[in-house]
Amino acid sequence: MIESLPTEKLQKVLASIGMGSRRGIEGWIAEGRVSVNGRVAKLGDRVDEEDRIEVSGKSVVRKPQRHRYLLYNKPANEICSRKDPEGRKSVFDQLPKLSRQRWVAVGRLDFSTSGLLLFTTDGQLANKLMHPSSKIDREYAVRVLGNVTDEVLQNMRDGVMLEDGIAKFSDIKRGREEQEGANQWYYVALMEGRNREVRRLWESQGITVSRLKRVRFGSFFIPSAITAGRYMELPLKEIKELYHMAGMGPQRSKKRR
Predict the structure, then answer these.
(1) Residue 50 sits in which domain range?
(2) Angle made by CA atoms 217, 157, 218, in degrees to the nearest 5
(3) pLDDT computed for residue 207 by the predictor
(4) Are residue 73 and residue 188 in the same domain, yes or no?
């Protein structure tokens, strides 16, 4: 009997070679942009190493490439999508150009939010880092306007029911920055990254957020030399830390030939 070749889910294969995140690739499959051996693929398809894959009519080269990893200090007023109908500047416009790979953002920041963003070409890693099961906390510096009482702070620690479920800060600290009139600075941390979650938590208490910056993702901070709009390639030690945070163990890089 001839043994069949081992198969893997189509979206996992494409994510592993840096085509995008699994969620994004699942969207491409649902839109009919992906084909396998000339047939339009569907969600749930599995492929082996001999299957021919095309995305938007272009053949996918499945030879592994060395993955890359960036830390980017996002300025305010950049979007985290590749294209924008309004023509606004994208974070992807600022990153190094790639051949046969795609940058995948580890989560998103709102248009007006600045600060730390991580990027990688390893879609599986990005997916793991973004998944709630990884329990990675994010810390933000937030400038607010309003009457911030002890009760308000305790409400946000205990949990507030928002339209998409209960949300809460795992930590809240008063900022050491010089207070600006009626504005006050706080540092807040939370274990997930739902859309506009930090802003919505404060707004649920009648407090206005006038400035928001992500200063930490897990064990990663923005180095002082990486000013707004600049990025840095992560060194090997920090790459290993990314995989550790994602629960994926040590990562062995493929050597270029």
Answers:
(1) 8-59
(2) 10
(3) 95
(4) no
Check: CB of residue 115 under 8 Å from CB of residue 193.
no
| Radius of gyration, alpha carbons of the chain | 21
43 domain-assigned: yes
Q: Of the given ranges (129-143, 178-192, 220-234), which has the lowest mean pLDDT?
A: 178-192
For residue range 107-130, what is the model confidence (pLDDT) as tens digits?
Answer: 899 999 999 999 999 888 998 999
**CB count in 10 Å sphere of residue 191:** 13
DSSP codes, 200-248: HHHHTTT-EEEEEEEEEETTEE--TT--TT-EEEPPHHHHHHHHHHTT-
Task: Let me know if residue 148 belongs to a domain.
Answer: yes
CB 138 within 8 A of CB 216: yes
Catalytic residue chosen out of the listed positions 110, 122, 158, 164: 110
Please say if 137 is a catalytic residue: no
User: What is the pTM (predicted TM-score) of this model?
Assistant: 0.74
Identify whether 94 is part of a domain: yes
